[in-house]
Structures are given as C-alpha cells and as structure tokens.
Amino acid sequence: MNSRRSTNPLVATALAVLACVLTGVLALYYGTAGFRVVSTEEGRRLAIEERPAILPPTQVRRALDARAVPLVADLAGDRRAAIVTFVYTRCQTICLSAGTELQQLQDRIRERGLQDKVRLVTISFDPLDDSTALAAYSRRMKADPKLWQFYGIDDAAERARLLDTFGIVVVPAPLGEFVHNAAYHVIDRQGRLSRIVDLGEANGALDTALRLGGGA
Fold it and tell me: What is the 3-state secondary structure (H, E, C) of 61-85?
C-alpha cells in the first residue's frame, strides 16, 4: 500500500485557481503602476508626471520666419510654459476640433493677461507642410504670433524620435491623409514634457501650464 497521502482533487483545484489569481493580480499590479492606472497610456502619462521627459535633439522650422532652430532651446529659452499640439494642416477631423479649442484657449490667455506665462505651440508631422503651408494655417487659425507658434520638422529621423517621445502615433491613410492621436502636451520652463492632458480639457491644460510656469 502507498504510504503517501493522495492530494484531495478539490484542494488541488483550489490551489491551481489561487495560483492563477495571484499571477493575474501581480501582472495587473505591475501593468498599472501599483493599481494607480488602468491602461498603458495612463501609465505613460503617470511616468511623465513623476519624471518629466527630456525631449530629443530636434531641429524645427518656424513658420513665422522659416528659420531652423533647436526645439528644446526655443522652448526653454522662451521662459514660458508651453502647450504643444501635433497636427497636419490638411487634416479635416481631429485637427479642426483641436484648432477650435486652441483658438478659444488663445482668447482666454489674452483675456486673463497670461501671455508672459504660457504660450501655444503647434508642430506638424507632415513632411509636406512647408513654411508657406504652416504660415497659411497659422493665419487660418487667427493665431497671434507672439502667443501661438507653428513649426515643421524636415528630418524624418528627428521627427520620428520626437513623435515617439510625445506618444504620437501617425498612420498613413488613403488620399494622403493620416490617422493620428492627439492631446495637449504641457512643456515646463526647462523645456521638458511634464504633463499630457486630453483634448476637451483645455482649461486643465492651461491651469497645469500655469503651475509649471510659476503663474498659478
């Protein structure tokens, strides 16, 4: 007769279920930064809030004067917090909604006399958006050049690195269009990506920029 006790099938099943549950809980814990977030995107935003991201070296072309300037130096040298958005000028969907919100945000900044605390920055990810196209888009948005600047990026590798840092995904679509995500990206006075705020939350983006810029 076998002297070892046989394991109760119910106990074995319960132990197996418990092991699976513990494995799932641990995976959820690490995947949600200790249960603080519920998605990868939220996890990325939390990581940026806790440790602002250093922007990669990127030469951008200003729509205002077609000059090439280093993006980080241009942002940090301005000494204002910035709210950055990404677009392409031919966009007829999400970019239009963001443009309307930014126009209203520009009015709000001027009404409150906050021009020396925060500015708006729009960067095109479309290689076809040259300085002429960006300047025309700026006029269409009724942008105040002292408050709201527009930039293009000529180098494809630099463009890809910058989009990756900001978490912008751009997928080519038919007829030369693009499918892409969008948000408000708040840059602090040191030129670091410090917060990401959803579209539709322009007031929240402004309040955050003021705090980071020392204006709140």
Answer: EECCCCCEEEHHHHHHHHCCEEEEE
**Confidence at residue 10, expressed as pLDDT on a 0 to 100 scale:** 65
Amino acid letter, residue 143: A
The pLDDT tens digits of the residues spanning 150-184 come to 999 999 999 999 999 999 999 988 888 898 999 99
Tokens of residue 68, six digits:
């090439």
Which residue reads 């080519």 in tokens? 172
CA atoms of 23 and 17, how far apart (whole Å): 10
The CA–CA distances, whole Å, from 43 to 11, 135, 202 equal 37, 36, 21
Core vs surface per residue 5-37: b (16+ CB within 10 A) or e = eeeeeeeeeeeeeeeeeeeeeeeeeeebeeeeb
